[in-house]
Amino acid sequence: MVPPPRAKVEERPKPRPISDKELAEIDAAAKGMDEGGIFSKSAIIGMVVLAFVGAFFGYFTAQGQQSRQIEQTRVEDARALQEAIDPALTSFAGVADRITKLSATEVDFEAAEALGEAKFVVSGDVLASNRLLLGRDVISPLTAYMAQSAVLSEMIAEHRRLTALDKAEIEGLLSENDVLDESLVAVVFDYRHLFTQGGNEGYRPRPGRLMTLKNLDRDDEGMLEASMLNSSRTQKVEMQALVPLERNELIKSAGDNALQRYERRVKDLKERTEALKQRINPLSSALSELAG
Question: So where does this one cross the membrane (predicted)?
Fold first, then answer.
C-alpha cells in the first residue's frame, strides 16, 4: 500500500513593514494626547466642570418646580377653604346684623327663634386635610373664628330657650309696662297723718299705694283722678299726697325678672358678636389674597 500524499502547507504572508507615513501619524497622535487631546487632563477637567454646572442648574430647576407646586397647592387649598367657609361667614353676617338691631328693652321673640336656626359655626372638618401651607395669617384668624363662633352659637341657643321659657312672664311685664308708658306713676300717701303724728318718737308712716294718673290736671275741686295699678278702680287724690316715680326705676325696684334677664342676654350677645366680627376681615382678606 502506498501512503497518502501529505497536505500542502500554505505559506504565511510575510508582515508588511510600517511605512514612514504611518509612523508619522502614530507619532502625531501620541504627541496630541500629551499636548491636550480628547482624553487629556484639561479635557477631563472641562468635562467635570460641565457636569457640575449641569447638576447645579438641575438642582435649582427642581427646587423651582417644587416651589411652584407648593404655591399651587396653597392656592388650591385657599380656594377650597374659601368655598367651604363662605356659607358660614355669609350666615354670620345676617346674624350679626340682627343681633345689632336687638333692643334690650323691647323683647323680640321672633328674632330669638330665627337666630337659633342660623348656621354660622365653622367646624374643625375644614382642617381635615393638610392645610398648614396656608400660613399663620389664615390659620390664626380661622381657628379663632371657629372657637368664638361655637361660643356665640351656644349663647344664642340658650337665649332662645330662656326667652321661650320666660315668655309668659315677659308678656305679663310688658302689659304692665304698656299701662306705665301711657300714665304717670306715683305713690299716694297720707300726708295729713304725717303732719299730725309725725312729731312722735314712735311715729310710723302709713303705707303708700302705687297709682297711675293720666295727667296732672285738677278738677273743679282741686283734686286729681288716680287709678289703682292693674285695676280699673279710681279715686280722687290731692296733689300734696303724690310722690312721682321714674318709670325706668319701677322694674328694677322689683328685683330680678324676665325682662332684666333678657336685657342681660342681649347685652352679652352684642358684645360677643362685636368680638367675632373682628375676626372676619383678617380671615377673608388673607384667603382672598392667597386664593387670587
Answer: 43-62
